[in-house]
Design goal:
heterodimer; A: mainly alpha; MetI-like fold; 2 domains; 14 helices; globular; B: alpha+beta; Rossmann fold; OB fold (Dihydrolipoamide Acetyltransferase, E2P); six-stranded mixed sheet; five-stranded antiparallel sheet
Chain lengths: 280, 355
């Protein structure tokens, strides 16, 4: 290895460590905080060495302000909206990638354009619309609203994966008498597994971490964990330790999902990076 | 073969294909006999692959009819035509094993399991990949992938094989071997085969008959020997043969041919006076004491034959000979052009002038 090369490697490692530190610091801080008593949290200067406690976890799980129902709420909202998104986005993306129909380009642009809207601008119209149809504080109401964002995003993401599958692949399947649906199921879908995994993660993450719509359009019945955690911050006091414990618990399912799909994600992300956006 | 069985007779009538303002095919007519090995030959962009894809039903057409065994299949889906295709890229399903790839067309028509097993092993054995059935396409060499695609095509005994440049991704040596095997396989199976290639040598050696495509039209159809011996136009003449026919501008005046300042008097009548293009195969030319004055431009020694590039009034023509000629580059020589080896084409239309 030449000196210049070695220097480059060191520089790269240095930058990576720096980035990791910036990313990891708040997470580690929250992790530490979740094991502190509320008194230790407010100690100044902050204590690194302290007597750890599991009280916060016990409280947020089984106490009067248990977030277990909220975790369930989040799971339902994120799970169902992810499932529905995939159910509609996969065939839609396939159609956009393959079929020639009038307005194909325009619909592709529309899908992208919805991603450019600041969500906050839609809060009031969504609120009024849901109120009219009785969808406030209901699961289906919140899920429908999430679909309006996740569906265009998922379609846009999946189209590039479908476009990476050579056309000849399904032409061969058509000649082999598979028909469109079986060609899609047996030949095309297995080849875009990575893309579907990546899309699943992104859509689920967005729904799981969503706060703005959940706090406005949800309520007492439907209160995802993000909203519940926010309630630890009140006018009189902020329960930092419990908030941190809640955050740790809320992160767990997402991390689990990420680990399960990691192989697909890494593969999927590189495919997207090298070939993605190659819409002709 | 009985008259009722799907024999694989192809008939295309007046096929027109347009891409916007560009016309890819200007009314193609094509008849292919049952059991024939038929090549569609032409340079890239000449419409040969489009014709094949229209035959397969993969490409919609603007005008014309496609008939298979007397049935109009123009409106039929690809899967309803009973044709199998080998793509240039092979289009193997990467997530399936070789076995599953070959079995796919059978499984799509709900073939019993033991019959699938037997048919796949039989097809694989025919193309010598029966030891690779458990692998995935990514673990195969290019030649093995090509054979897998071939096995997938033959496994369900279609009435028509469509091969789109199936050898173009193989290296030169393997291409020659596979060419021979492909021909033997087709003879053994007796299935009508339509074969697209831009390689004239491949088409000439493998096919019973060849259709030569130029700019969206079929310019000549016939057995390779006929096309070689009597090219229908100057363009075909300049495309067929390796190296292809030499073409030189010439003029007919009072029954005498004027080429590069030299007069040639063939024994046959040359037809009416006017500007023509004359063609002569490289193997018909000889270096001699008299004839066209030329300068030796380059000597290409191919081992058993030698190709001499000659500069005749600013145009390079090629001479091929089995004997090593004793000429050096830059030397002034004369080239004899036997009159009976001459082909004469109209200068403006390029059409062959029958002598």
């Amino acid at each position: 290895m030449t000196a210049a090369k070695r220097l480059r490697t060191f520089a790269l490692i240095g930058v990576a460590v720096l980035l990791l530190a910036v990313w990891a610091f708040p997470v580690l801080w929250a992790l530490l905080t979740s094991f502190k008593t509320e008194r230790d949290v407010l100690a100044y200067p902050p204590t690194i060495v302290f007597e750890p406690t599991l009280r916060n976890y016990r409280d947020v799980l089984f106490g009067s302000a248990s977030i277990l129902p909220n975790l369930l709420s989040s799971t339902i909202v994120a799970g169902v909206s992810t499932a529905l998104t995939l159910l509609f986005a996969v065939p839609a993306a396939y159609a956009l990638a393959r079929l020639e129909f009038p307005g194909r380009r325009a619909s592709g642009f529309y899908v992208l354009a919805t991603q450019m809207l600041p969500p906050v601008g839609l809060i009031i119209p969504y609120y009024l619309a849901l109120q009219k149809v009785g969808g406030l504080d209901t699961y289906w109401g919140l899920i429908v609203i999430y679909l309006t964002f996740s569906l265009p995003f998922a379609i846009w993401l999946l189209v590039s994966y479908f476009e990476d599958v050579p056309r000849e692949m399904e032409e061969a399947a058509l000649l082999d008498r598979a028909g469109r649906l079986r060609a899609l199921w047996y030949v095309i879908l297995p080849q875009v597994r990575g893309g579907i995994a990546v899309t699943t993660i992104f859509v689920f993450l967005n729904a799981w971490n969503e706060f703005l719509f959940a706090v406005v359009l949800g309520g007492n019945r439907v209160r995802p964990v993000t909203v519940a955690m926010f309630n630890f911050i009140s006018v009189e006091q902020t329960l930092w330790a419990k908030l941190a414990a809640g955050a740790m618990l809320a992160m767990a399912p997402v991390i689990l999902l990420g680990l399960l799909a990691q192989r697909h994600i890494v593969k999927g992300l590189t495919v997207g990076a090298v070939k993605g956006g190659g819409r002709t | 073969m009985t008259a009722t069985a799907p024999a694989g007779r192809v008939s295309m009538r007046g096929i027109v294909k347009r891409h916007g303002a560009f016309t890819a095919l200007h009314g193609v007519d094509l008849d292919i006999e049952p059991g024939e090995f038929f090549a569609l030959l032409g340079p890239s962009g000449s419409g040969k692959t489009t014709t094949l894809r229209i035959l397969a039903g993969l490409e919609p057409l603007n005008e014309g009819r496609v008939m298979l065994d007397g049935e109009d299949v123009t409106e039929r889906e690809p899967g309803e035509r009973d044709v199998a295709m080998v793509f240039q890229s092979y289009a193997l399903y990467p997530h399936m094993t070789v076995f599953d790839n070959i079995a796919f067309p059978l499984r799509m028509i709900a073939t019993p399991r033991d019959e699938v097993e037997r048919a796949v092993r039989d097809a694989a054995a025919r193309v010598h990949i029966d030891h690779l059935l458990a692998r995935r396409p990514g673990q195969l060499s290019g030649g093995q992938q090509q054979r897998t695609a071939l096995a997938r095509a033959i496994v369900r005994k279609p009435r028509l094989f469509l091969l789109d440049e199936p050898l173009s991704n193989l290296d030169a040596k393997l291409r020659l071997e596979t060419r021979v095997e492909l021909r033997k396989l087709q003879r053994a199976l007796g299935v009508t085969t339509v074969y697209v290639t831009h390689d004239q040598e491949e088409a000439m050696t493998i096919a019973d008959r060849v259709a030569v495509f130029m700019e969206g039209r079929i310019v000549q159809v016939g057995p390779p020997r006929d096309i070689f011996a009597r090219p229908a136009s100057a363009v075909v003449a300049g495309f067929i043969g390796s190296p292809p026919m030499n073409l030189l501008p010439a003029e007919v005046r009072n029954g005498v041919l004027h080429v590069a300042g030299v007069e040639l008097r063939p024994e046959r009548p040359l037809g009416r006076d006017g500007a023509v293009t004359i063609g002569v195969r490289p193997a018909a030319l000889r270096i001699a004491a008299t004839g066209l004055p030329a300068r030796v431009y380059l000597v290409e020694d191919l081992g058993d034959t030698t190709i001499v590039d000659l500069d005749v009034v600013g145009q390079v023509i090629k001479l091929r000979t089995d004997q090593r000629p004793s000429v050096r580059e830059g030397e002034q020589v004369h080239v004899a052009m036997p009159a009976d080896a001459l082909h004469v084409f109209e200068r403006d239309s390029g059409a062959r002038r029958e002598l």
